[in-house]
Amino acid sequence: MVSIRIYPERIELVAHDAVVASHVRCFERNQIATTGSTTSR
């Protein structure tokens, strides 16, 4: 089973109870999520 877990600071993709991807969320317009921070386009 595959699911998406949504948290205030990140989104996780989970398959068979194991996190297979985790991404930082961006709340501002025109930003790109990078490791540990966000940058403007």
Describe the structure.
- The chain is mainly β and 41 residues long.
- It has one domain (2-35).
- It is 0% helix and 63% strand.
- It contains no helices and 5 strands.
- The model is unreliable at 37-41 (pLDDT under 50).
Task: Using the CA coordinates, give the radius of gyration.
Answer: 12 Å
Main pleated sheet: 3 strands, antiparallel
The domain count comes to 1
The structural class is mainly beta
**Intertermini distance:** 35 Å
Silhouette: elongated
Number of strands: 5
How are helices and strands ordered from N to C?
EEEEE
Q: If strands are numbered along the chain, what order do they take across the biggest sheet? A: 1-2-3
Q: Report the mean per-residue pLDDT as an integer.
A: 81
Q: Which percent band covers the strand fraction?
A: over 45%
Number of helices: 0
- Share of residues in helices: under 10%
pLDDT under 50 segments (min length 5)? Answer: 37-41
What are the key terms here?
single chain; 41 residues; mainly beta; three-stranded antiparallel β-sheet; two-stranded antiparallel sheet; 5 strands; elongated
Architecture blueprint of SSEs:
Blueprint: E1 2-6, E2 10-15, E3 18-24, E4 31-34, E5 37-40
Antiparallel strand pairs: 1-2, 2-3, 4-5
